[in-house]
Amino acid sequence: MLFRANGILSLQAGKGVIVYRRELQKTEDPEKLRHEKVEEFRERFANPYVAAERGYVDAVIETHDTRPKLIAALRMFETKRDANAPKKHGNIPV
């Protein structure tokens, strides 16, 4: 699995940080704290390099390398043929 270096793995555009709800309710400036927590989350978890380090992603590719990598991957499958044996039995109507 390849992942682009400028991609975000999760977190839907920072809609909210539910995990820190109590902290957000106690603070005087909840918007500032929410922004800080979203940025902290992005740095720690929504980073493709962290995912690659943990083995979730095989490689992180730069944006300008996307097209050549995609073309190479598709060319590899260009001559692939299905090697499965034909089915011996089908599902009979019940």
Describe the structure.
The longest helix is centred in the middle third of the chain and has 15 residues, at 30-44. Helices cover 43% and strands 6% of the residues. The protein has one domain (2-76). Strands 1-2 form a two-stranded parallel sheet. With 94 residues, it is mainly alpha-helical. The chain has 4 helices and 2 strands. It is elongated. The protein starts with a strand and ends in a 16-residue tail after the last helix. The model has no long low-confidence stretch (mean pLDDT 77).
Helix-strand blueprint:
Layout (H helix, E strand, L loop, with lengths): L1 E3 L16 H6 L3 H15 L3 H6 L5 E3 L4 H13 L16
Number of helices: 4
Order of helices and strands: EHHHEH
Total strands: 2
Shape: elongated
Helix percent reads: 40-55%
Low-confidence stretches: none
Strand content: 5-15%
Strand sequence of the main sheet, in spatial order?
1-2
How large is the radius of gyration?
A: 22 Å
How many separate structural domains? 1
Largest sheet: 2 strands, parallel
What is the end-to-end distance?
Answer: 41 Å
Mean pLDDT equals 77
Structural class: mainly alpha
Structure in a nutshell:
This protein is mainly alpha-helical. It has helices spanning 21-26, 30-44, 48-53, 66-78, and strands at 2-4, 59-61. The protein has one domain (2-76).
Label this structure with key terms.
mainly alpha, 94 residues, 4 helices, two-stranded parallel sheet, 43% helix
